[in-house]
Amino acid sequence: MAVSALNASHEAVHARYESVDPLYREVRDIRLLGFVLFLISDVVLFSMFIFAYLYLRNSVPNWPPITTAGQLPRFDVAFACINSCVLFGSGATMHAAMESWKHLNKPAFNLWMLATIVLGIGFLSGQAYEYQHVPVTWTGSTMGASFFTLTGMHGFHVFIGVIYLITLYIQANRGVYTGSKYFGLTAGTLYWHFVDVIWVALFYLFYLM
Amino acid sequence: MAVAAAHLGQVDQHDHIHPEPTSFIGKYIFSLDAKVIGIQYMITGLLFFIISGLLAEVVRIQLLRPEGGFVSNDTYNGVYSLHASGMIWMTIIPLMTGGFGNFVMPLMIGARDVAFPWLNLISFWIFPPAGVILFSSFLVGAPDAGWTEYPPVSVQGPPGTSLWCVAIFLIGISSTMTGLNFMVTIMKMRAPGMTFTRMPLFVWAQLATALLNMVATVALSAALAALFIERTFGVPFYDPGRGGSPILWQHMFWFYSHPAVYIMILPAFGFISEIFPTFARKPIFGYKMIAFSSIAIALLGFMVWAHHMFTSGMAPWLQLPFMILTMVISVPTGIKIFSWLATLWGGKIEFHPAMLFALGFVVVFTFGGITGIFLSAVPVDLHLHGTYFIPAHIHYVLFGGSIFGLFAAIYYWWPKITGRLMDERLGVWHFWSTFVSFNATFLPMHFLGIMGMPRRVAQYRPEFQFWNDVCSIASFVLAASTLIFLYAMFSSLTRGKKAPPNPWNARTLEWQISSPPPYYNFKTIPAVLKNPYDFGEPLPYLGLDPSDKEDHRQAKPPGGAPPEPAHA
């Protein structure tokens, strides 16, 4: 059984996805559109704060503003790189989890799902460590304000995402989803990839730019 | 047509996505039904309309005399700030989208409810607390920087400014959720055969509004969140003393608030597009142009926000593009107005109160639109910015536009919502007294602005007194004429005649079922063959269940079961 499931082709996955009963398909499409629109409005939220950051950055002659200790703030780019890789890795494991589910491979799904959750928690721990060592404070300068507000918002999204993934893991193991009816998992995957993509922008803006 | 007909009969009333509630709370308080939620929005919105209107009267009493003295200067600042905030966020936007959008839009597209009823329930129940928080800011010191709350004044403002942030943030979240919900509903839940170019124009208007609500309102939420954390935790965003920029607020605020004026006017355009063909008994002129111009307005609306900031010290090279784009946006609006006029041309016009308000809308909104063109020109704006010309313009488009549109919509859909007819004579009196006193109130404000009277002042120079007194006295008449409206609603509810399903012989779907509509809206979802404006032809719907037209109010046993025929 497991072997045949592993070998199930993409065509079979696709056929299963499409041949689900029409009522479920309608509800699934409605929810998918709703969820994508929610993500778009979330993108606008991040874009506004990114706009604020770029605006503040360009409205002063010298950037970054000097810290209260009289030094230029320097971020630990190497550490941020490693932490980013943890988050991007979790995107890959999430994709693997979703593919395993579609190919009816439940044990692999469980494994990849747990890996994603662990990596997500790892990223949050890394961020908590970084928050204690960055040379800026939230209220100290416009740079700190933008940095902590944006990465904090993102971290909050990751935190919600981890809870979301744990819920999905429990639900999947209780038989809420089947091989053809798994909209909740699709939404969770979309959300997790969205969080990843936002981080790409933030990583560039704060560490590379 | 065959395809559309094949869908018929697949769904019956038991497929309603949520069962009819039986308890009082489930029916009237925490209802999932879009119709009930729409009515809840309307009642709450009308309540806030009265409160905000009374605040406006306080402003006008204060300005009767040059030295003011009716309220203290601080209170006065709070009064005009909350008048505008209350009217914009607690009255017009919830009534336009939450109220009429919820009640009418699902009926018009032949759906049984919106896409996410629970989300709808939540977005309504955020609204009354937000209003209470907003007006309770008087208790701790009301926000005093106007509805735009420009920093740095708002950063240093009284504690009520934080409450203002919370209230507007909440109503923003509510608008975003409604926008998302409506967008999915309109995209995915139309009756079979109702293609995009067969949708009623009100639905087109709601689609464009939903897009704006979903995207632009989040920008406001971000700006408010930043202001709130700056005030509460001292995080520098807007305070120039700490490296922040007050202009940043203006950019973020107007990136929302300019689209917001289209959130407040596009649904009104939709009302007019429904009312004109019905009462002129003619097909709408230029259906597609009206529909697409709504979308064009929504998209262009995102590109003109900086015309509010010509005097703010933003980069001068930005002035020209924003000036031109602002003038461009009057093109789709003009397309609509000329299409409406062409709809009236040669029609057999019935002067029902709804039609009167719709005609009044076109007159005063066009006037307000033209003063908008004045203001979009940088040289004129430099002279008029911050004067009474601005309140004059905004009241012509928001009162003469949005509120006239809402009055028209209330007169038009009242029988459908309540199942009772309104006294048309009272409606005609309401219209004429409102129309005359509206113009007497707001037209002189243009003169005051050109004479140089600044806005938001509690005292003014004596030479402005004559026109201020004209405005104030006319505004009292305006308030009194609203009493006629309240009385007309009250008398219709208590002793109005029962309304037939389709009192105006309108052709959109909501009029093809009983007034008020049954809980499940349509027993069988009809198929749609054409757009609904071809007066003189048979109705373009297949498969409507005739029993949906029956008055289901009498002899209804508890539990929502249909009445049983009497057996021998």
How would you describe this structure to a colleague?
The complex is a heterodimer of chains A (209) and B (568). With 209 residues, chain A is mostly helical. Chain A contains seven helices and no strands. Chain B has 568 residues and is an all-alpha fold. Chain B is 63% helix and 1% strand. Chain B has helices at 2-6, 24-29, 34-62, 73-108, 117-136, 153-156, 160-188, 201-233, 246-280, 287-300, 319-328, 330-344, 353-376, 378-384, 389-418, 424-451, 465-495; strands at 527-528, 541-542. The radius of gyration of chain B is 24 Å and the shape is globular.
One letter per element, helices H and strands E, the order of chain A comes to HHHHHHH
State mean pLDDT of chain A (0 to 100 scale). Answer: 90
Task: Count up the domains of chain B.
Answer: 1
The name CATH uses for the topology of chain B is Cytochrome C Oxidase, Chain A
Determine the N-to-C terminus distance of chain B.
43 Å
- Unreliable spans of chain B: 1-14, 555-568
Question: What's the level 1 CATH class of chain B?
Answer: Mainly Alpha
Number of domains of chain A: 1
Q: Largest interface, with Cβ-Cβ < 8 Å?
A: A-B, 28 and 33 residues
Percent in helix of chain A: over 70%
Largest sheet of chain A: none
Provide mean pLDDT of chain B, rounded.
90
Give the amount of beta strand of chain A, in percent: under 5%
Q: Total helix count of chain B?
A: 17
CATH architecture of chain A: Up-down Bundle
- Residue runs with pLDDT of under 50 for 5 or more positions of chain A: none
